[in-house]
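Curious: can you check?
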Amino acid sequence: MIVFNLQCKDGHGFEAWFKDAAAYDGQRRARKVACPVCGDTKVAKMPTAPRIAKGVTKAAGKGPDTGEDGKARAAEFQRAMERLHRHVEENCDYVGDKFAEEARKIHYGEVKERGIYGQATSQEAKELSEEGVPFAAIPRRRHKDA
């Protein structure tokens, strides 16, 4: 089994489990993978950190780690993501939905180079990548309940 972090064109992030990468590819092409929030079937994989084994393997057939160690790792990941978001917000300019446009201007030397952040559609991200414009997608912040 493999888990992928996915996102629809509207930016809703979610996880989905598949037998293997080929199963994901086939289901996505057949539009069988849908966003649980809006039902959109145009989804894309989001960057994820690899899981690196520490020399101890789990017994075959067990699911994800749900013990205290897993909870502690999840909490540390959330703290790291919060630090990343805070760093970006403190050191980069927010350009909103003009991210792709601004990234191109910087890449082609039309404006002074600077760090930016904002939103881009999956199509805009694909086009930026094809043009060789460097950028990175980071997971959105989780909204906390009131």
